[in-house]
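User: I'm writing a short report section on ligand binding and want a predicted complex to refer to. Could you take this sequence and zinc ion and write out the structure as tokens? A short remark afterwards would be nice.
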Amino acid sequence: MTVVSSAESHRLSRRLPVAPVPLPGESLFSWVDHLAAVYEVDRTEIMQWLGLDPRAAHASRLARHTAELRLDAARSLHIATGLEPEAIHAMTLLGVVEVRRSRPYRLSDAPEAPEETWAFCPRCVEPPVRWPLWWYRWWAVMCPEHNCYTVSFCPDCGSPFSPAILRGDAPGHCPGFTSLADEQHRAPGRRRPKRKRCGRPLWEILTPTVADPMVRDTHQRLVRMAGEEPSSLDRQWYDDLRTLRILLNEPNPLYVQTFTGPDPALRERYTTQERGSMWDDTDTNPVVLRATGTGFLHPWRRTSPSTYGKERDPVTTGAELSVIASVLASDDMAAAAREAFRVLRPASLRDFDNDLPPYLYRASSQLHALISQAQTSDVLNRLHASPEPPRT
Ligand SMILES: [Zn+2]
Ligand SMILES: [Zn+2]
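Assistant: Sure. The structure tokens for the complex follow:
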């Protein structure tokens, strides 16, 4: 429907008397919730005032706006708050767009899944909370202010977190449902009881201290690059970082031969075990650590007696970043990469669904030996034959 009612056009042109400016690096989601708190209204109402079209699922809609904001929504936001377009743009991951792309962030090269799992600092989410846009990024492994690892799932119930599921009526509390243990003890034939919300205060979640300077420096550099125009040196470093990360994880993992970092939390994640067997039926814990092909243990969540899913995990990502950043910091990257990784099975074009990530084309020549070992010839031919994709 294109007809705008007079009530709506009135609403869209209304200017809020006061609109607090966003904090540096703040996400749109956080700022809109902050405005709601300032005006003592709920999220639906503030979104209506701002012309952000709240509809039913207001949290996931706001998460979507934070990913990329349609031009008409950005305009009404500007009219309602007087905020400059640059400031609005800076609160979104992909910026202001004419037409929304359909879930572009599913690609591992694109900015990270805004409607999906998030990493946050427990100590920073005690209400009232305002949180930075970079919490959405895959590299959001630590909080520079509290020097601790971030968290992506609830240790009590295993629910992964995203702002899209944060409840307005219980701010800062885990919105997940309690574990399956109650389900399993249900007498046969009895009706399924209504599942209870977990409700754990997120700010009470304990998370290890970061003791690896490599993780700290890498994270600091990535935060800086997210906030300002990166230098060409930064860009090359980031291309190499993502290249090693994709080689390490997908589609066919590289095995990390040793892990000697100084951080006990990261060392605990390293194992020489083979890839773990799936599940121990007697374990009622909603989340367990299992070995993956990379040499790192990864938390998995059981979602029903027979299904389980990999959790996003900042600590494991921190361990991977530590290994990758050490290779990139070495004077002889080629030798450091040889020492760090073992190729178990090279990946083919089919493993990449025929679509190679653009940064792979731009990797430093020092990584070429590792790339040729870790990829089959069809991938290498493609890398040599095709022009380098433009940087976006
Ligand atoms: Zn913090
Ligand atoms: Zn929970």
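A remark for your report: Strands lie at 69-70, 96-97, 142-143, 148-149, 254-256, 287-291, 297-304, 307-310, 341-343. The chain has 15 helices and nine strands.
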